[in-house]
Structure formats: C-alpha cells, structure tokens
Amino acid sequence: MTMKLLPTGFRDRLPPEADASARLVRAILDTVAAYGYERVQTPLAEFEASLTGALGTSSRDLLRFVDPVSGETMAVRSDITGQIGRIAQGQLSHHPRPLRLSYGGPVVKLRASQLRPEREMLQVGAELIGLETVPAVTEVVTVAIESLKAAGARDLTLDLTLPNLVDTLLPGADTAALKERLDAKDTAAVPAELRPLIEATGLYAEAVERLRAFDTEGVLESRLAALDALVAALPADVRVTLDPTERHGFEYQSWFGFSLFSDHTAGEIARGGSYQLGDEPAVGFSAYIDPLIDAGLAQGERRRLFLPLGTLPQKAAKLRAEGWVTVAALSEADSAEAQICTHILSNGRPVPLD
Question: What is the spatial distance between Cα 70 and Cα 196, in angstroms, rounded to a whole number?
C-alpha cells in the first residue's frame, strides 16, 4: 500500500501531542470562561463573502472552492475572529453590550509564511464586543496572559504596537510605501522626521519615552496614556516591549495591538488588539496552540495501568476514579509493554514496570 504524504503545511498529531492539544485548549477556554466569555462554535467553511464581510478583510489568504449545492464560492476560514463578528452582528445583535464570546478550532491558510510554516493551525481566543476602552483592553490582555499561564507558558513577553499609527500621524496621505519601509525597519528609506518611530522600539519604559518625545504636538497623548494605564495593571512578571510601527498580522486592528511570546516557545503564541465591526468597537485575542504543543507543554506524565485478563470491572472502575488510565488485556498475548503502560496491576495494586 502506497502512503500519500500530507500537503505542505499540514500534519498529524499523535499521542501524547494530541492529548496535550486537548488539555491546552481546555486550559485556555476554562480561563476565559471564568471571566464571563461564553463559548460559540462556528463552521470550518462558509460563503466567502460572509467570512470577509464582518471585518472587511481581504480574501487573498482563503482557500476557496465552489459549493456544489448553491453554486456559490465558499472558503475555509483562516481566522475565526471574523466569524465571531458575523454572529455578534447577526444572531446576537440584540444582546446587551459588551458581549463576551470565546471560541476554539482549526483554521487554514492558503499559503504559509516564513515565520509560520504551518498552513493548518489551532486557534483559541476570546472577543469583547461593544467597547475598546482602556478597561476593555486591560481585561482582554489580562485574560490572554492568564490563559497562557494556565496552559503552562512561562517567562512571557508582551509586545505592544499601534497598528494605525502612521495613518493617524499622516491623515489622508498615501502611506503604503512608508508603511513597508517602517515594517522593514529601513531607516535610510524613511524620512528623517519619522525615523524616531523606528527608534522608539524596545523595552516599554524607554521606548514609550522616545515616542513621547517624538510626539511634540500631542497627537498620540491619549494613546500613550492608555498604554501607560494598561502596563501599570499588568502582572510584574511579564516583560513589556513596544514596537509602535509593527503591522505584520494586524491588518484589521485599529489603535491598539499586542503579541505574546514565551522564552520557551518558538515564535508568537498569541495576538490581539482593538478593531471595528462596522460601527461597533471590539477588542480580542487569539492564542495559537501549536507552538505550545511543540514546546512540550501539557503532555504530562503517563500513568497507564495494565489490567491482566480477569480483572473485575468494579476494580477497574475504582482505579479510574483514583486517576489511573486503565488498559485492559483483551487476549493472553497482550502485555503491559505492548500497550505502553507504566504500571501493571499485581495482587490488586499498581506496580511500576522496571
């Protein structure tokens, strides 16, 4: 039998990684639920127009196909946030604001990036719809940090950005080329008067003062005050940095954006910020489970207990109630080693295997 390889950017998760994935998702969703965020489930694919409509995002990253039933173009979701927006503006438009929703599930990108080679990812997150105030932003960032800590992430860095900074400083101007140069941190290609924006990068305390010194006309005063208030409310063990012109991955965010990193994982593990749903403000975050799995989080210690033939069901049930994973022999040929067990039931009690 010929085995076909998976498409580029897709992979299987085997034990114990698949078990760890479920634990990580549950840890994050349980944390956000404790803050009042209620779970919703959205379809893996839907009509292309509805996937992009709520946030006004581009369809260039969507894997599209024609629905054989309706004949219309459908797409596999590349981000669940837009689906949450559709629900908030549709079925839950009557719900009092702010509306707190959470979600989790796979997303698929049309193409991988150099920073993130996976095309299929597991996305878990929460959205607060109806506000983008400092208290709302503070709650969402706090929930994001706490949920990642509950999942086992340690030594976190919170990187803050101001996604629409350039448009705020130069309203009405064609800033596309300038944004690309700022994204590339190409100091030589940026006008001299805007180079301090690149220099205002690094640890928050020093970077925000450089940005404040640049803002001689006070255009950014309210935003910087909001960032100060947010940072003051954060746990002391979270390192905070500032990169005010960072826009990668912040296509639809407005005045505020953030990314979370851990010293023990590769790349970004969460991202969020403020955005608009039509004329309604919102703020939220998405956590990415795959880097956490790859870092070995939530795999835990295997405690698999082999039950020889003839073990009474009542005894097996009692052992499971005590926290054991029981694996029952189904034939004389079965063995603890073959079932990858750590213990065997002998004389009525678990005995570790040598």
Answer: 53
- The CA dihedral of 264, 270, 271, 274, to the nearest 10 degrees, is -130
Mean pLDDT by 10 residues, the chain (354 residues): 79 93 97 98 94 81 92 94 94 97 96 81 97 97 98 98 94 89 88 93 97 95 97 97 90 94 94 94 97 91 92 97 96 95 96 92
pTM of structure: 0.92
Give dist(CA 258, CA 167) in Å, integer. Answer: 18
Q: Where do the structural domains in the chain lie, given as residue ranges?
A: 17-168+176-294, 304-352
Say if residues 160 and 243 touch (Cβ distance below 8 Å).
Answer: yes
CA torsion angle 28 84 88 148 (round to 10): 20
Kindly list the distances between the CA atom of residue 130 and the CA atoms of 77, 127, 133, 187, in Å, as whole numbers in the listed order: 23, 10, 10, 38
The residue type found at 222 is S
Residue type, 167: D
State which fold the 17-168+176-294 domain adopts. BirA Bifunctional Protein; domain 2 (3.30.930)
Ramachandran angles phi, psi of 217, nearest 5°: -95, 0
d(CA 44, CA 49): 14
Residue 273: what residue type? G
